[in-house]
DNA sequence: CGTATATGTGGTACCGGTTACACATTCAAT
DNA sequence: ATTGAATGTGTAACCGGTACCACATATACG
């Protein structure tokens, strides 16, 4: 690999000039420019990002910390992040935290040593202390869903509470008269918000009872178990709003095993809008988050922050859309 | 951030000694060691990976180039790669190539500039020329599925041909008498091998006809279209072996729309063993590849290559397993 | 014409590590 | 006593860039 000094020698100028030419900082005579161009060409020179990273500030690398890439919600997000990052010339390192604070901190240490330019947090355990820790090091961060604390970093999230209300209202309109909710892990803001949305929509209704809310774990198996519990306690349930699609899929599976027909006997609605929802049989109605868009926005935000054209921390709340499908279809009106 | 010189000053020794201590290269007196330890402790010193990268050789970073992380096959693979990489202290950069040679080459250029330690190719367009190009730069590479050329890099793949035979035999055992095949993109080795496996198993059977093989694109929509074409031409088909799970899912969907019952009228088998297969209704029988294991092996291989404890290029062919599920179930024997 | 400003270029000290080499000292073996 | 290996440490060049500063020349303005 040729170095900048090789190029300088061949072009008959100093390294400073080459650097100026490369970064378009300072003056370079048009003739000199041509000579440099030719030298670079013939030497097949490519500036080393590592040297640049050491000398200057930026490594043109960002990190994406998420709980688990094999959770179907994240691949699309990751794709979006990588897409916009690469169009801006950034490279992305990805880390699976499994939502464990310890792992996150380990990664953060590692990333600091690597002079990473910024971090996207799609993980949920980042707390105020950690965020401040990173901020101290001057590394810009942007969060998904969760704000460690007000204004410590920008946050992108979608309207979880409103979405949950939408889901319940849709179930009501579809003819449900007793709707249960399977909620996700208590420590996840998204799960909390969706639960609140559910409560908003049902608490004034005569049939409402707190026992209609049971915990899941945001995974398929959790949805299955919760559904069994639910139908055991309330055999007359005719609508289930699951806190995310994975649990809704579990619900569908459990109902199928119990030989309960969807949507005839029980209607089901999920939340997230992952691809899987569409391939279920019956197809799963869901409140879709704009996953790709979230990833794209969060990346653009981070890059803006890195490049200094943004120094305020804002909260972006994205709209969700109810996607009605088979699993909540009213009986045909004959 | 403290630097090595700060530590040296505080500990009252030279930077060389600190470096020796850090890398456990060369002698360091036990007393000196203690002083250094203390200095590092009080300064909260962390060596800069970037400086190390520039001075020494390794950046402790590997790249994973795959077609598209949102293709359900890859998240699990990516997870495995990241898991083992991180246990060895490596960090992973991921790149979506969309199977476009141009994108791949752009990434490779970028990665070279970053002094990446090695590359895992799970993408399919890497050709001999590209691979040599990388080899010239001395960057170790390991491939999934595809060997650009014999012995230019190690390859991890699973027994596609044998797996396809397994699938067809299973369909035959389940009572099928006319089995079609939906194959994937012609330029993918995996698709070719699976097609060959299908042919191996059926070519000597009386009903066999080349028109039983139709192209899909390894995606859901491709599977749906292919299924429609297939049943149009051969209404008496009672078994379909799709080249991958995504297409098999499409098949299931198409059959459902055509009101053809699975497995009663037509049995379906996929290939890959992605999580989605299990959540289908009916659950999809498939030939499962050990996806996580493939990712783990390929990463370990790469790391060994990087660290010099491996210099031969080998081919690892992993066993596949037929996972019988509802979509190929025989009618109950009453 | 003197002076300010724009244009163009080079020297070189960094950035924060690694490592080759030189130089001591200790200790066991001859 | 001599020698050579093992132990221990420091100096400084290098990795490949960036950027500050000095310095020249050309052009414009009052």
Outline of the structure:
The first copy, chain A, is 45% helix and 16% strand. Chain A has 334 residues and is an alpha/beta fold. The first copy, chain A, folds into 3 domains: 4-47, 434 Repressor (Amino-terminal Domain) (Orthogonal Bundle); 61-158 and 292-320, Rossmann fold (3-Layer(aba) Sandwich), CATH 3.40.50; 160-290 and 322-328, Rossmann fold (3-Layer(aba) Sandwich).
What do you see in this structure?
2 copies of one chain form a homodimer. With 334 residues, the first copy, chain A, is of the alpha/beta class. Chain A has 3 domains: 44 residues, lambda repressor-like DNA-binding domains (434 Repressor (Amino-terminal Domain), Orthogonal Bundle); 127 residues, 3-Layer(aba) Sandwich (Rossmann fold); 138 residues, 3-Layer(aba) Sandwich (Rossmann fold), CATH 3.40.50.2300. Helices cover 45% and strands 16% of the residues of chain A. Chain A is built from 13 helices and 12 strands. In chain A, strands 2-1-3-4-5-11 form a 6-stranded parallel beta sheet, with helices on both faces. In chain A, helix 1 crosses helix 2, helix 5 packs parallel to helix 13 and helix 8 packs parallel to helix 9. The longest helix of chain A is centred in the last third of the chain and has 16 residues. Chain A is elongated, with a radius of gyration of 26 Å. The model of chain A has no long low-confidence stretch (mean pLDDT 93). Chains A and B meet through helix 4, helix 5, strand 2, helix 6 and helix 11 of A and helix 4, helix 5, strand 2, helix 6 and helix 11 of B. Chain B binds a DNA duplex (30 and 30 nucleotides) through helix 2 and helix 4.
């Amino acid at each position: 690999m040729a170095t900048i000094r090789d190029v300088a020698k061949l072009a008959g100028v100093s390294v400073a000039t080459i650097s100026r030419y490369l970064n378009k900082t300072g003056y370079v005579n048009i003739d000199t420019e041509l000579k440099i161009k030719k030298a670079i060409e013939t030497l097949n020179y490519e500036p080393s990002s590592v040297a640049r990273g050491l000398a200057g500030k930026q490594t043109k690398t960002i990190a994406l910390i998420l709980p688990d890439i094999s959770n179907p919600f994240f691949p699309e997000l990751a794709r979006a992040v990588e897409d916009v990052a690469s169009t801006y010339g950034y490279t992305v390192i990805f880390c699976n935290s499994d939502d464990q604070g310890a792992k996150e901190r380990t990664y953060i240490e590692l990333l600091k040593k690597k002079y990473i330019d910024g971090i996207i947090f799609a993980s949920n355990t980042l707390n105020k202390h950690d965020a401040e820790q990173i901020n101290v090091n001057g590394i810009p961060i942007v969060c998904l869903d969760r704000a460690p604390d007000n204004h410590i970093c920008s946050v992108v999230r979608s309207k979880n509470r409103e979405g949950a209300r939408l889901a319940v209202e849709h179930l009501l309109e579809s003819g449900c008269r007793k709707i249960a909710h399977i909620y996700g892990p208590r420590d996840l803001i998204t799960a909390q918000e969706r639960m609140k949305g559910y409560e908003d929509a049902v608490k004034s209704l005569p049939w409402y009872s707190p026992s209609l809310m049971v915990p899941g774990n945001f995974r398929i198996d959790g949805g299955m178990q919760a559904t069994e519990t639910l139908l055991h306690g309330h055999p007359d349930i005719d609508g289930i709003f699951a806190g995310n699609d994975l649990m809704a899929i579990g619900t569908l599976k459990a109902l199928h095993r119990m030989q309960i027909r969807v949507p005839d006997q029980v209607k089901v609605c999920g939340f997230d809008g992952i691809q899987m929802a569409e391939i279920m049989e019956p197809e799963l109605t869901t409140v879709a988050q704009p996953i790709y868009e979230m990833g794209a926005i969060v990346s653009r935000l981070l890059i803006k922050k890195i490049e200094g054209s943004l120094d305020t921390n804002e909260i972006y709340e994205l709209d969700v859309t109810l996607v009605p499908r088979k699993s909540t279809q009213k009986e045909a009106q004959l």
